[in-house]
Design brief:
single chain; de novo design (two linked rop proteins); elongated; 70% helix; mainly alpha
Length: 123
């Protein structure tokens, strides 16, 4: 795969950053009892997605990049699970969780697209 010059050029990273910003904004009004609970977990997992994409871009070969993107996809699954739980507990205002989950799904598709164009054979 021909690499972009910088991870910031990856649409997957850009959308993951958007997801992280939105996660921070939308968890601000969680109950104070969730300061170190779901609020922090949602924020950390969202930031982790973008961080793993950036880190994967810096890998020296496609096999290593696939591993890093896989970690980003795993963090996205954590984010979605935590968002679903917060939604079921009524921590989000109407429609917010669905917006977060839709953006998360978009990021997941972009990550899968990146993984799909990488050479799967180890070097």
């Amino acid at each position: 795969m021909s690499r972009t010059r910088h991870y910031r050029d990856l649409i997957a990273w850009q959308k993951a950053m958007e997801l992280a910003r939105l996660a921070y904004e939308q968890t601000e009004d969680f109950p104070n009892s969730e300061t170190f609970g779901l609020r922090m977990q949602i924020r950390r997992s969202a930031v982790s997605v973008a961080s793993h994409i950036a880190e994967a871009h810096g890998r020296l070969n496609d096999t290593e990049m696939r591993k890093g993107l896989g970690s980003g996809r795993a963090a996205l699954n954590e984010f979605e699970t935590q968002t679903e739980l917060a939604k079921s507990l009524g921590f989000f205002q109407a429609g917010v969780a669905d917006t977060l989950l839709e953006l998360s799904s978009e990021v997941g598709k972009l990550i899968n697209g990146l993984i799909g164009v990488l050479d799967p054979s180890p070097r």
